[in-house]
Amino acid sequence: MLAGEVLWRVGIHCLNRMEADSIARLHVTGMEALLAKDAVFFHENFAGALTKRVLSFAQQYEPFVDTLMFRVVGQFLPLAFASVVLWRYDPMLVAVLLGMIAVTGVLVTPLIRRRQILVDAREAAYTGLSGHVADTMANMDAVRAHAAEGREAAENRRRVTELRRLTLRAWDYHNLRIDTLVAPLSVATAVGGLLLAVGAAGADGGPGVEAIVVTVAYFGQATQILFQFNQTYRQIERSLTEAAQFTELLLTGPTVLDPESPQPLASRARDVRLERVRFSYPGHSEPLFDGLDLTVAAGEHVGLVGRSGGGKTSITRLLLRMMDVDGGRIRVGGQDVTALSQADLRGLIAYVPQDPVMFHRTLRENIAFGRPGATEAEIRDAAAAAHVLEFVDGLPDGFDTLVGERG
Ligand SMILES: Nc1ncnc2c1ncn2[C@@H]1O[C@H](COP(=O)(O)OP(=O)(O)OP(=O)(O)O)[C@@H](O)[C@H]1O
Ligand SMILES: [Mg+2]
Q: How far is the CA of 310 from the centre of ligand 1 (A)?
């Protein structure tokens, strides 16, 4: 018994380490895979939903492995032991026990598969709900400015009601369809076992009452397995569904890629040339640009003026290779932007986007985001140029003040 306890502790200790390592690896893999995605991907996927998916991708590993270890392995070992004991009384007992478990598995599996469709619908609704919550939180100022709290709350209620409906549909299917099949099978198993045991016990030179007691005990345990078969399957299914949702996103690789052997940056004056550029956003039939030529000489200041939606921001995004042209090319200092590494290209460009960007980090980290090695003096100069210095010196924590995502 003591040796068993020691082995158990050692086993759990090793399992804990293995699980913690794997979860950590999945977190890192998930985040790195997302960081490798291109801009189009993030336009097509809610930030909030992605956050939920990438985190549960890693977190679901623990219940998944625990279920395999404790439910699957933990139930089948005692079953093997029970089979050996029952075999000594009557091999038929073992045949009935294992046979009924197999029959239940075969009958229940198609029902559980059908339930998978309901579970997928529920998960999709949950992803939508969490995306909406995150979206509202991230744009709280806009929500308040438009007095849209009521509308957002109503949308949230609508999504919660839908989630409730889909959740109940999946649960009811389980309770009313699957368990109503398992229940009579488990009763049949117990009764069959009892009748066989009574028959075996009463035979000439039979094992007697002992066999009946042992059989009832083991068959009782086996019917537990029949019911837990659902729960086991359900937990494994939940883990796999959640992980699959994220893995699916990883299957489509980024469309903006570094060339296999990027050209080194040439050290020459860097003019910018767009040559016969053609580009359309995915899903738009009309191209946004078709045969666009634009030359900006080195040192020249050019302002692009145009109606909203005219494509000014899109030009900067093409130049930064947030997305790639469909035809023609863009050159910087004579070099095609697709021949450079994305890091080299973007290192050449100081990009001040239309929407202010703030990380939930210190002012210092926010200012130096584009140049991680920036010195204190450089950070102060940049802050002075942006008229930020005027209020930073008045803050108790100065550049170490934590600022919110929205400033
Ligand atoms: N991610 C996107 N997916 C699909 N279409 C987009 C996307 N971003 C922009 N567009 C479309 O491309 C066109 C150009 O948009 P862009 O943002 O480049 O215009 P803009 O000139 O910067 O406008 P503004 O003056 O409003 O900033 C618009 O019709 C817009 O609807
Ligand atoms: Mg714009």
A: 7
